[in-house]
Amino acid sequence: MKLLSTLILLSLLTACAQLPKSGHSAADTPEGQILPFSVNASGGLPERWEPMIINRTKKLTEYKLVDDDGKTVLHARAVAAASGLMQKVDIDPLLGSQLNWRWRISGLVQTANNSERGLEDSPARIILGFDGDKDSLPFADQIMFETARLMTGRDVPYATLMYIWGRKAPVDTIITNTRSNRVKMIVAETGASGVGDWHSFSRNIAADYEKAFGEKPGRLIAVGVLTDTDNTGETVEAWYGDIGLSTPDKQAGNTTLE
């Protein structure tokens, strides 16, 4: 992504939506917590999530709630496109630091390489935005944050951590965004093995954050999903199940759901 795209991505991590739905009430999930996709009826977008526009000059990824074996999940389709969905939250990751989610993809982005500018695409990403002391960062980072605030009218997260489905990099590889060291990616799944199957994950986000940034995390202020192929021009689909937090009662890892 170009620098402007990265700044817009950072700025929109604080957005949230209040969208209507039918079916189960969202009142069971307090404001500031992650609202599951499955409490929504299929069709349209999930409540409390809003579109995250990466670059207004680029095509948007298509998102829609669909039924999958009796459960509502989020379907994404990117055709040379890049946009996400984001929900504002307010969570102490040290109190419930196990992030649980599941996803499946139609295929890899065959020419993607998240370590190389111009090829930074992924069929599936989970995006986490964290608060922190921006005044403690190097001057160049502070200028970047201030520039983004002036351009967008929003404060931006102190740090952004993504879990991605990579093409070749080994699982647990940490990749620094080519434009900003305040954005880190952890490879949660890699390669074509299991394409088309549901994969379930449980990651200790506090531990992962500390490995990526070398410090303990501040409050979790945003959660998002992103399926993007704008740089490679390819086509890919992804399905996202519920994203949630639990107490860390098991080690981080992933499982293929049969």
List the helices and strands and how they pair.
Layout: H1 3-11, E1 50-53, E2 62-68, E3 71-79, E4 82-91, E5 98-105, E6 122-130, H2 139-152, E7 159-166, E8 174-176, E9 183-190, E10 198-204, H3 205-213, E11 220-228, E12 235-240, E13 244-246, E14 253-257
Parallel strand pairs: 7-9
Antiparallel strand pairs: 1-4, 2-3, 3-12, 4-11, 5-10, 5-12, 5-13, 6-7, 6-11, 8-9, 10-14
Helix pairs in contact: 1-2
Summarize the structure.
The chain has 258 residues and is mainly β. Helices cover 12% and strands 37% of the residues.
- Please give the share of residues in helix: 10-25%
Question: How far apart are the termini?
Answer: 35 Å
Number of domains: 1
**How many helical stretches?**
3
User: Based on CA inertia axes, which overall geometry fits?
Assistant: globular
Characterization of the model:
The chain is mainly beta and 258 residues long. The chain has a single domain (3-257), classed as Galactose-binding domain-like (Jelly Rolls, Sandwich). 12% of the residues lie in helices and 37% in strands. The protein has three helices and 14 strands. It has helices at 3-11, 139-152, 205-213; strands at residues 50-53, 62-68, 71-79, 82-91, 98-105, 122-130, 159-166, 174-176, 183-190, 198-204, 220-228, 235-240, 244-246, 253-257. A seven-stranded mixed beta sheet has the order 1-4-11-6-7-9-8. A hairpin with a 6-residue loop joins strand 8 (174-176) and strand 9 (183-190). The termini are far apart.
